[in-house]
Design brief:
mainly alpha, 6 helices
């Protein structure tokens, strides 16, 4: 998918959310990535990519996106709660070897 223009990001973001809600994770991820290609500092996009990574058990990618979201919006409690699990699991040597 080609990157959307700045004015189309809200509409495209809603399309990604709809795909994600239907379980179409690859389609949603592709759309979110296209948004980041236009504007990389949207914490909500990083949060959603983190959620998709968690659904795929990709803890490293989840931690990367959730950390990016936290850097962009550090006062958001949901982001702090979301990152705790992946960071704990990454520190667990048994889980980290998977």
């Amino acid at each position: 998918m080609s990157p959307p223009s700045l004015q189309h990001i809200p509409t495209v973001f809603k399309q990604a959310q709809a795909a994600q809600a239907k379980g179409e994770l690859q389609a949603a991820e592709d759309i979110y990535q296209s948004i980041l290609a236009t504007k990389s500092d949207i914490p909500e996009v990083h949060f959603q990519l983190g959620q998709i990574a968690l659904a795929r058990s990709d803890l490293g990618q989840a931690a990367n996106h959730l950390t990016a979201a936290l850097i962009l919006k550090p006062a958001e409690p949901v982001l702090w709660k979301a990152i705790i699990g992946p960071l704990r699991q990454l520190r667990d040597p048994v889980i980290a070897r998977r």
